[in-house]
Specification:
2 strands; single chain
Length: about 70
């Protein structure tokens, strides 16, 4: 069984909800090293990956991943 995606971990100052899904996405990007590969593994769009990482970075006021231009 999967963990319910509706479990809220915290809310940011604007009241936006953060879920376990945000952390799952973070872990997948960290493990694969690529947002596109993480998106494929999680069966979601790359823009959804970027949004979730952006949400976490905004909440914690840190940069989680260094963005490098494609080579």
């Amino acid at each position: 069984r999967g963990i319910s995606q509706s479990i809220f971990l915290f809310r940011d100052r604007k009241g936006d909800r953060m879920t376990l899904r945000h952390l799952q996405i973070f872990v997948e990007v960290a493990e694969t090293g690529k947002m596109s590969e993480a998106a494929n593994h999680l069966f979601i769009s790359q823009s959804s990956i970027s949004q979730a990482i952006g949400d976490l970075e905004s909440y914690y006021s840190i940069v989680l991943f260094e963005r490098l231009p494609r080579s």
